[in-house]
Amino acid sequence: MKEMILSDKSIKRLIQEGRLGIEPLKEENIQASSIDLTLGEDVVFYRVDFIDVRAEELPAERRSIPEEGIVIEPKSFLLATTLEYIRLPRTLLPLWRVGPLWEGLGSSLKTQDG
């Protein structure tokens, strides 16, 4: 199978056909070859130097993001959600990345696969 990045027209067509689902969807979030997602209202900060997957519990602090924003300390590890629910067909593989604004602030994104 040929690998390719979808264009905005292809993304819109897949959504219209019901093969790709994003709810809620804002039309302005569909970019030339991507879909911008919206940061959710809560984050979970883990208060450990490393994540031990064998640990039964990890010290964590759940916080709501206030109107003025939230400070993420250097070398912090946190989980965040998006406001959108995404449904993908088996024929598509998403590529998650941090947007240019967050990259400029020194943020990185670690996904479940790497």
Please tell me about this protein's structure.
- The chain starts with 7 loop residues before the first helix and ends in a 10-residue tail after the last helix.
- The chain has 114 residues and is α+β, with helices and mostly antiparallel strands.
- Helices cover 13% and strands 22% of the residues.
Per-chain topology:
Blueprint: H1 8-17, E1 21-23, E2 39-46, E3 60-64, E4 77-82, E5 85-87, H2 100-104
Antiparallel strand pairs: 1-5, 2-3, 2-4
Secondary-structure-based class equals alpha+beta
Biggest beta-sheet profile: 3 strands, antiparallel
Tell me the total number of β-strands.
Answer: 5
Mean pLDDT level: 81
Count of helices? Answer: 2
Helix content: 10-25%
The shape is elongated
How many domains? Answer: 2
Detail the poorly predicted runs: none
* Rg measurement, Å: 17 Å
Q: Which sequence of SSEs, written as H and E, runs from N to C?
A: HEEEEEH
Widest sheet: strand ordering: 3-2-4
Distance between the termini: 23 Å
| Proportion in β-strands | 15-25%
